Amino acid sequence: MIEILLAFLLYIALSIVIASRAKNSHLDFAQLFLISFFLTPITGVTFLITTKKRFYYYVYQYRCPRCNYYFTEKHSNCPQCIEEGYKVSLKKVKKIMT
Question: Which of 56, 63, 88, 90 is the most buried (most CB within 10 A)?
């Protein structure tokens, strides 16, 4: 009885480990866990290897802290706020794009 319980816990742990590797693929943790759990961990590894990898790149934008408007071009002050009579410096923000 203990052997069956240990085998089941090992099976779940292996499914969790495989699902935790889904960070850079188009499958998320829950999808890969369910595939690994119900269709065996070997199938989960196969799905993990064959799915496309998700590529990230970063874009820098400039955000106005007053009006929360984003600009792609660098300005010393927010053009929207200057029209309203305020002089607000823009903050550089790094955004992740997929």
Answer: 90
Instruction: Answer for the pair 15, 30: CB distance below 8 angstroms, yes or no.
Output: no
Helix (H, G, I), strand (E, B) or coil at 66: coil
DSSP structural state of residue 7? H
Which two three-digit tokens encode residue 14? 């292996």
Any idea where the domains of the chain sit in the sequence? 2-50, 57-97
Handedness of CA 18, 20, 24, 30 (dihedral sign): positive
Of 71, 54, 61, give the one whose Cα is nearest residue 94. Answer: 61
The type of residue at 4 is I
pLDDT digits 0-9 by tens, 24-75: 788 889 999 999 999 999 999 998 888 887 777 888 999 999 888 888 888 8
Q: Which helix (H) or strand (E) holds 91?
A: strand 91-97
Q: How far is CA 50 from the centre of its chain?
A: 19
Number of C-beta neighbours around residue 92 at 10 A = 9
